[in-house]
Amino acid sequence: MNDAGSRPSRFALSKWYLDLVTGDGRVFIGYWGEITWRGAALRIESKLEAPPEGPSMSRSAWTRGRGPQAERDGSLRWSSRRLGFDACWKPTAPPVSRRLFERASGHVDWDCRAPLAEASVRSSGGATIAGLGYAERLTMTLPPWRLPLDELRWGRFVAPRQSVVWIEWCGPSPLRLVFVNGAEAPRAVIRDGGVDLTPGALLRLGRTRALRSGQPFHALAAELSGLASVLPARLRAIEEEKWLSAGTLVAGDTSVEGWAIHERVRFGKEKR
Asked: Which residues, 6+ apart, have CB-to-CB distance to 77 below 8 Å?
């Protein structure tokens, strides 16, 4: 695909990410995305589930169904017949949004609908899990393989009445955003073992276990017939590591324990 240069991009992506961790460390992560490109509109949904101990399991499908929908009470509801679940996220903290990147050929908007939520997922078999969760929506009119981005670090920590979200881009257009209970922490420093927030406040991550690693688009293409033929080389080369960690938010003499989901994504090299 040629770089759009000064003309508007013909690419559009809307991607939902929603997660839930139970008190004992059971994980549900859901993705729903719609891509408009080269005159076609494609919808994909995916889920990752991990027990408190043991390997994660993923499943993806093409879909015609709608993604998460906002209810009058502010909650987000999402049902997938193909993947076999009905889920709800009830935000307990105000949303946060930012335009992460913009140039003539497109932009990237981040809309964190629920930095902290009470969440539940009921499977088609009737089993229900519940816990604290998180929900965001990313919209892009610039293809991800054209982003001035070499590495992405992202994470979220949730605990009763507490949340931390962090985003860091490394590359030609560096970016770092950290929000603590919805308030931006401009001097925060993101580290492998946590986030230094303000003097006297930090988020420590420990008891880490891998949820997924490798090349996610290769795995996705193996499940979805026809996808591999349209993926650009830079997208196929993406390497992802995603983890679940027990987290402790420390501020002065107080501390709160919760769960963090965080990841590092390395992009392949290609002319932007």
From this structure: 68, 69, 71, 86, 87, 88
Rounded CA-CA distance 60/141 in Å is 24
Rama region for 172: left / alpha / beta (φ>0; ψ in -120 to 50; rest) = alpha
Strands (DSSP E) contained in 63-200 are 69-70, 76-80, 85-91, 96-103, 106-123, 128-140, 151-159, 162-170, 175-180, 183-184, 189-191, 194-198
Where in 141-200 does DSSP place strands (E)? Answer: 151-159, 162-170, 175-180, 183-184, 189-191, 194-198
Can you tell me whether residue 168 is helix, strand or coil?
A: strand
Residue 258: name the closest of 179, 182, 158, 161 by CA. 158
Q: How many residues does the chain have?
A: 272
**What pTM was computed for the model?**
0.90
Place of tokens 């997938």: 80
Each of the 272 residues of the chain gets a pLDDT tens digit; together they read: 333 343 444 889 999 999 999 999 999 999 999 988 777 788 999 999 999 999 999 999 989 989 999 999 999 999 999 999 999 999 999 999 999 999 998 999 999 999 999 999 999 999 999 999 999 999 999 988 888 899 999 999 999 999 999 999 999 999 999 999 999 999 999 999 999 998 889 999 999 999 998 766 656 655 655 565 556 666 667 889 999 999 999 998 899 999 999 999 998 655 44
